């Protein structure tokens, strides 16, 4: 019977092609607008490392100036000083730990046809690879002893490796980076966590391109490699690299990996104890609360998902609701002209339930067609959005989850819109309709 009603639904669409087209188009546009916005929000708010996001922790320590400070004032700097990074690395807290910062370097490739290449990467400790589940295509991470010796080694992204050496295993190759010669020890497979949680330089950086290279943290410091990103200084400092390292300027991120999420309290106690000890040296005079964030908490603290993105999603769903109201009106018009047909069916013995099921399935058919068209519209909208910038290109893509949600939303929307018209249709009184014929 359901198959029969489904075929009837398809046939009824041909009776009023213009009205049908209006319903399908209205539904498709509403679904496409809402689903494309929801898709971007879905990618932006995802868990970038779900298997251990509750075991990775980033500390925030308030080293701001005491001048003009109001107790309880929120600290807005989310980076650490070099001296704190060194001390936390030596703490041996957790299974792994790393300090890191963004670096930009000029690469002089061996290939004469390429010329100088500017690349953006990261300086970090060797623990970073295991901490963040960074995959390798060739080679392996540098060793802990390379951290200690500040060795001139580098791990390249797959894209940069192929650009410099071609589609071959480049492990063992050498190249000059900002005047120093580095040896390639590994090549990464694609690694682009969404959002980029481990270092933050504004919301746009959370959805940027993948790291093009990684070098040891100690090596970057030895070569006086300047940072790529923000810096905050709570007091004046003397000129020079060593003065910068000794200063209260913050430009590093730091992460701990614990064995379990339950060790958060233990780590928090250590951070509190560390800050208390440093106050003896005249630091951290504000005596503010020390904060510790896991990955999800860190993303919320950084406001990766801004209020404007949430507002856009609500506006998109408001537009979908408006489209549903229009679809209800069109369905009422479509079903009202078939009142005589319903009266004849009821007179011949059809129950209200059977009439309701027929029109209900017809609404679902409209939803199915609207869903197919809505998917095409949503994909087109995402392609247009992706063309605006590299950051948007990263998040403006539809996965299987969102594709399934599009169909479900379209059919559900059509069924929801069809409930009132369907209920009105099955309430037709057969005698009145037969007398009017």
Question: Would you mind describing this structure in some detail?
Answer:
With 437 residues, the chain is an alpha+beta fold. It folds into 2 domains: 2-45 and 306-435, no CATH class; 56-301, no CATH class. The protein is built from 16 helices and 12 strands. Strands 3-4-9-6-8-7 form a 6-stranded mixed beta barrel. The model is unreliable at 432-436 (pLDDT under 50). It holds the Pfam family FtsX. Residues 20-226 form the MacB-like periplasmic core domain. The chain crosses the membrane at residues 21-44, 311-335, 355-388, 400-420. Keywords: Cell membrane, Membrane, Transmembrane, Transmembrane helix.
Topology:
Elements: H1 2-15, H2 17-44, E1 56-60, E2 80-81, H3 82-89, E3 96-108, E4 117-124, H4 128-131, E5 136-139, H5 144-149, E6 153-156, H6 158-165, E7 174-177, E8 180-188, E9 213-216, H7 217-222, E10 232-233, H8 241-246, E11 249-257, H9 264-278, E12 291-293, H10 295-301, H11 307-336, H12 339-347, H13 352-386, H14 390-395, H15 400-426, H16 430-435
Parallel strand pairs: 4-9, 6-8
Antiparallel strand pairs: 1-11, 1-12, 2-11, 3-4, 3-7, 3-11, 5-8, 6-9, 7-8, 10-11
């Amino acid at each position: 019977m359901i198959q029969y009603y489904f075929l009837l639904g398809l046939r009824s669409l041909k009776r009023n092609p213009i009205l049908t087209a209006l319903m399908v188009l209205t539904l498709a546009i509403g679904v496409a607008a809402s689903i494309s916005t929801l898709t971007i929000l879905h990618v932006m708010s995802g868990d970038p490392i779900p298997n251990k996001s509750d075991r990775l922790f980033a500390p925030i320590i308030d080293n701001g100036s005491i001048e003009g400070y109001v107790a309880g004032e929120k600290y807005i700097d989310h980076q650490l000083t070099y001296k704190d990074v060194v001390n936390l690395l030596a703490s041996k807290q957790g299974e792994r730990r790393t300090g890191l910062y963004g670096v930009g370097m000029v690469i002089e490739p061996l290939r004469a046809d390429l010329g100088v290449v500017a690349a953006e990467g990261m300086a970090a400790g060797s623990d970073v690879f295991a901490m963040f589940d960074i995959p390798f295509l060739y080679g392996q991470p540098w060793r802990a002893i390379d951290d200690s010796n500040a060795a001139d080694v580098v791990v390249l992204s797959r894209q940069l490796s192929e650009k410099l050496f071609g589609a071959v295993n480049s492990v063992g190759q050498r190249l000059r980076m900002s005047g120093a010669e580095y040896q390639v020890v590994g090549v990464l497979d694609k690694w682009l966590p969404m959002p980029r949680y481990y270092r933050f330089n504004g919301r746009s950086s959370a959805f940027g391109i993948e790291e093009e290279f990684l070098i040891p943290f100690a090596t970057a410091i030895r070569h006086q490699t300047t940072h790529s990103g923000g810096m905050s200084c709570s007091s004046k400092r003397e000129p020079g690299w060593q003065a910068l390292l000794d200063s209260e300027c913050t430009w590093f991120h730091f992460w701990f990996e614990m064995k379990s999420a339950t060790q958060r309290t233990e780590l928090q106690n250590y951070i509190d104890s560390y800050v208390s000890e440093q106050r003896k040296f005249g630091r951290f005079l504000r005596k503010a609360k020390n904060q510790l964030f896991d990955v999800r908490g860190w993303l919320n603290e950084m406001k990766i998902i801004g209020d404007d993105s949430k507002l856009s999603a609500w506006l998109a769903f408001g537009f979908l609701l408006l489209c549903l109201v229009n679809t209800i009106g069109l369905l009422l018009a479509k079903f009202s002209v078939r009142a005589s047909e319903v009266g004849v069916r009821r007179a011949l013995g059809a129950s209200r339930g059977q009439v309701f099921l027929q029109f209900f399935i017809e609404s679902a058919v409209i939803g199915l067609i609207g869903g197919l068209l809505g998917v095409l519209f949503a994909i087109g909208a995402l392609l247009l959005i992706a063309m605006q910038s590299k950051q948007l290109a990263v998040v403006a893509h539809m996965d299987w989850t969102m594709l399934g949600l599009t169909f479900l939303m379209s059919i559900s929307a059509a069924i929801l819109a069809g409930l009132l018209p369907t209920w009105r249709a099955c309430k037709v009184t057969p005698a009145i309709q037969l007398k009017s014929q």
